[in-house]
Amino acid sequence: MNENVRKYYFPVIKFIYIMAVFLYYVVARNQGMAIISRNLFFMAGLLMAAVLFEIQDKKRHIFLGLEILFLVAVFFCNQGSLFLPMVILDIIFYFNLPFAVGITIYAGLLFTWEKFIPYFTLSSFLLILYFQNYVIIRHYKKQMEIYEQKEVSLKDSIDTKDNLFRKELEQNSLYFENRILEEKAGLSQALHDKLGHSINGSVYQLEASKVLLKEHPEQGLAIIQAVIDNLRSSMDEIRLILRREKPDKKSMALLQLQNLCKECWAKYKMETQLLMEGDTAQISEIMWEIILDNTFEAVSNALKYSKCSLITIRIICLNKLVRCSISDNGVGCSQLKEGMGIQGMKNRIRQVNGTLDINCDNGFVINMIIPFEITGSL
Predict the structure, then answer these.
(1) What is the mean pLDDT of residues 156-172?
(2) Domains, the chain
(3) 0.90 cut: is pTM over it?
(4) What is the number of other CB atoms lying within 10 angstroms of the CB of residue 322?
């Protein structure tokens, strides 16, 4: 039922009801045209007031007053008894009285005993209609308003969380950019402090050796040998600095997994959680590389096919092996078709004598087991 139907169907029913009662009076009584015209005028006023009472949300008390006034006029013409239940029910629901009070309309039988059957029938019919419109439909409207308010609240909450998440991403991005700049600055400073003086000294010594080689070749050669030794030492220092400043693959792998979880939510609104148990320091760089490649492949497949709302990445370090599982709460599948992605995952695991197991009965679960004593190589 669309909005226009909900708004106008009850006024239309009132219109039909008043016209039916009017026709009843015309047919039931043999009256002249002058009387019929007068009654039609009063009933038209009652019809207008009753319909506008339902349509207009504001100033309803005015139309209810007009409705009562025209009812009195129709009563004066001795033709208003069958309109009495409608006006009484309008008064009851205007003042939000309990629906049980509506049975008072049957009290009109005391004044219209000669019209017992039509009055009782129309009163019962009106009670059902008013109950449907003012009790059932009003309850439905209130529930819809509550649901709409909840929907708006949820949307606001999602927008708020999304804004907070974006701010966190920006902060994290700035944090990592600052870290990179700090590392670059540290590397530049270390190279300058450790090597600048040494290289400058070597240049000066070489300049001096050019002069000495003609007159004092032995001294010149000694200086050149000293420069060579100094440059070898400087190269060793360069290697040491680069080795020290080189990013740790293990830390980078963990950071990539964390960023993967954040990207899944930021781009696809997919909740992805990373759980780790045990001493992850035991995981070697080769193992991290396999875990990373297979995890990215598994998450990519879940986003494409599983229709899930949650992806869980769990890494557990045991005594002699690492267990990594990627699971989702999606639809799963009855029969697994292995494509190039799954074949690639299996090949990586085989190369390090590990095992890979896939379960797709309830969602999709990929279990990888990699031993610490790796005999294969990538």
Answers:
(1) 68
(2) 3-111 (no CATH), 165-245 (no CATH), 250-371 (3.30.565.10)
(3) no
(4) 23
